Amino acid sequence: MATGSNEPKNRYLRYLEVVTGSLEEKKRWWQYKARVKQLPENYRTAAEALERYLMHFGPADGAGAMAMYEDLADLLERSAADGTPIRDLFGDDPIEFVEAFMANYPLGQYRARERNRFTSAVARAAGDDTPPQDRTK
Amino acid sequence: MGKQATEMLKGTLEGIVLAILSSRPAYGYEITAWLRGQGFSDIAEGTIYALLVRVEQRGLVDVEKVPSEKGPPRKVYSLNTQGREYLEEFWRTWSFLAERLEQLREGGK
To answer: By the CB < 8 Å criterion, does B103 face chain A?
Structure first.
């Protein structure tokens, strides 16, 4: 993927993006992965565990997801440089941290779908005639 | 810090962080250190970071990247005009809440 982002994309690349998703995002993803690889072992272990959690419950792709992983790499690199202990970084309840962090980015597909479904079901049950506003964005 | 204090702190943490930034710009670690010094010992640095990302996204703070001797540049946060307005609103809400709770304690007058 040696194409500079300013050059017009050739037909093959455009075709590829339709098939596999944005190449720009892929580039950002691999850059994030390379940054994690450079972290000291315990921070890397934490990063991989976080990544797993975010993959399940957070946004899976799109620019919002990439911004999330980049912000995560910023935090971990800074903490590793400062020597912040892992426990000080994540606290006694790491779930509280990861949920607060994830809330800053677009909802994951699964959560978005179920939230919409639940909101609509309540609206029907309440007998609302106006469709509920989409609050998942 | 007890469980109750931690829970109560959650809803006010954003206001607290903006109030800290209203006196001077700071980076994440300084904010956490200040909070710990004040007895809020349970606060995770990651949680403060998540909050700083949020106030940045909402345009309440300005961010400047300052080179660091070791590691990546530090993000230094400062409160901007919109952030100051938001903080004023926070204090008004806080006063309202504190007043009502005090009334409740005195016997619901």
So the answer is: no
